[in-house]
Each structure stands twice: as C-alpha cells, then as structure tokens.
Here is the input.
Amino acid sequence: METFDIVVVGGGPAGATFARIASGGGRSVLLLDGNLRGKPCGGLLAPDAQKALARFDLTLPKDILVDPQIFAVRTIDLKTARQRYYQRMYINLNRDKFDRWLLSLADSAVQVRRGRCTALDRTGGGVAVTYRTDAGERRTVLGKVVVGADGANSIVRRSFFPPLHTRSYVAIQQWFPLQEERCKAFYSCIFDPDTSDCCSWSIHKDDYMIFGGAFAPHGCRESFERQKEKLAPFGFRLSQPVKTEACMVLRPTGLRSFCCGGSGVYLIGEAAGLISPSSLEGISSAIVSAVALRQSLETSDPGREYLRRTRRLRWKLTLKNLKCPFMYQPLLRNLVLASGLSSIRLYDGERDSL
Ligand SMILES: Cc1cc2nc3c(=O)[nH]c(=O)nc-3n(C[C@H](O)[C@H](O)[C@H](O)COP(=O)(O)OP(=O)(O)OC[C@H]3O[C@@H](n4cnc5c(N)ncnc54)[C@H](O)[C@@H]3O)c2cc1C
Here is the structure.
C-alpha cells in the first residue's frame, strides 16, 4: 500500500494551510479533496482571518477579490421590520478562488489528489484511507498520521469519535444575476424568528447577489422559500436563481462541541467543530487550528499539545455564545436594534430610500 507520513482529508482553508506548513523535513504529505470547488460560503474574510493570514506575512492577490468591497452590514429583523447599519471590516472574496489560492501555496512536496474519502480503518502502521476518484476507481493509501480537515460533516470525525454536542443546521444559498434595479443591501444580515432561530444573509459578488440562510434540518427548504417571500417588501428580488447550494453548518454550544482528535487522527477547522456560533465565521479558526496542529506534531505528545494550543480558541468560540442572545433572542435583539447602539445613522435622504 502507498504510505504517507501524513494524509490530510479536505482541502478547504484548514487542510490547505496545514498541508502547506506540514511539508518539509522530508515528510511525505498527501492531501485528498473530494470537491475542490463549490463550497457554499458567504466568502467574507473577517478581521480575525485577515490577522491569521497576516501572521504568515501573506497578502491577497487582487483576482480573488470581488465587487463591491463592503464596510457596513444592513441588519434586518423581518418580524418587526426594524433595520440598522453597523460598521464591519470584511474583505469580499470569491471563495472558490480563495481556496484554490491557499492550496496553490503548498510546495511540490505535497501531493494533492482529487478523491472523496469513503472509509478509514486503523491498521498496525497507521490508518488506511480509502477514497474514490472522479473516474469511480477505489484506492487505499496508508497514513501514519491522518488529519481530518473535511468540514462540518467530517467522515474522519464520524469514523473515530463520538458525535459532537452541538447544534447543526442546513445552510442553503442561492445565486441571482444582478438586476438593473440593484437592491441597496450590498451585505445584509437577516433575522426571522418564524423561519429560523439562526440567521440569513445577502451579499453582492460581481454580477450576482447571493442569498443564503441557516435553517433547522427538518423542513429547511420550505423555511428558506418562506423567508425569501418575506424579503420582497425590503427590496429583494429573489426569483430565478442560477445556482442553489447547500451544506451542513455547526453552531457550537460549549466546550463539548469541539473534538480535536488524538492517537494519530486529528481534526482541524470545522471538522473539529471550530466555528463561531454567533457569526458562523470559520476561516480564521480553520487557519489557527491548522497552525496549532502543525506545531503540536513536533512534540512527544501531539494530542495533549494540540489540546493545549487550541484551548484559547475553544474558549473564545464558547464565550461567543454570550453574544448570541443579543443577536438571536427576538426580544433582546429588538431592544438592541431599537436603541441604535453602535449603529451607523444614515443621512435622512438615504433612510427614506430604503
Ligand atoms: C453558507 C455558509 C456561509 C459561510 N460564510 C462564511 C464567511 O463568509 N466567512 C467565514 O469566515 N466563514 C464562513 N462560513 C464558515 C466557513 O465556510 C467554514 O468554517 C470554513 O470553510 C471551514 O474551513 P475548513 O477547511 O475546516 O472546512 P471546509 O471549508 O468545509 O472544507 C472542507 C473540505 O473538505 C472536503 N471534503 C469533505 N468531505 C470530504 C471527503 N469525504 N473526502 C475528501 N474531501 C472531503 C470538501 O470538499 C472541502 O473542500 C460559512 C459557512 C457556511 C455553511
């Protein structure tokens, strides 16, 4: 069987970052990704993720950016029709291009293969990783160490570890060609307690507007469609999407919502449950956890060291739950919106045209 020092399953921000920094020192690294394109995502690089990239002294190539760049979010409560603008410093990206760029930074010592991992089994020398190629062939490789960077529905996590104590949602996102009459919400965050206890969003990306939201799995598509109808009075034209995407998204509730792995099988990024429960921002945690694991593998007890190195991140994400009631509990949210606290006050003419 072909053998690698490290097999990474998943080539998103977590897997790509890990593979890039794990090669070297004669280590053989294989990265497997089942779908190098098409991850549903808002594609916004938050300040924490910007900082994580800056720590590698990395800058973004211009062709990853999309139009427009945004610096405010329009927050809408559909039940009370209250709206406010808040300043936010995000970078608006093409998520596919961002992932491919991160992956392109890995040196030639990293083998990248397109293949969907279908089974993992512990053997004497490590873990046998079976994957299916695009051509339908079944292949098995041996990883002395296996890194699960395969996102919310991680097969690596499900194969070796108990289920996470977390909330899971189905995120649905649709792409609409921009109409001449542009909706003014270049970036909006939408709350509607009737259809979801999480949030939805709209973002302009070049010639498209994407609208997406996270919904309880049961009846998710129906809730999504009902919410779209409610957005018409707010200026959203959400008919005839050209693309519909969906995936699972996690919302950690506490420290037991995370699993870092151990004994030669480790989890990074969203596979480990590392995502913000308040904003669903996950790119920064993906990068930070990849770095923490890489540093831990150098030590005599990588499992314990990886736990230690991610302690601060896990607490930070857990503490974000304290913010959630003010965003997701309708009464508290409306008190915040009514108060106008920290919001941007629009000029009168602009407010009238909303
Ligand atoms: C709708 C939505 C919008 C979001 N918007 C934002 C945002 O704007 N900003 C932000 O910071 N975060 C956002 N997030 C969160 C963010 O997308 C994730 O937290 C982040 O991508 C996690 O990175 P990752 O590398 O851990 O996992 P992922 O990005 O999910 O990557 C996992 C990779 O593993 C591959 N894979 C999965 N299963 C297998 C398998 N069996 N075999 C081989 N490969 C496999 C997938 O193809 C994928 O490439 C959003 C999430 C959702 C669902």
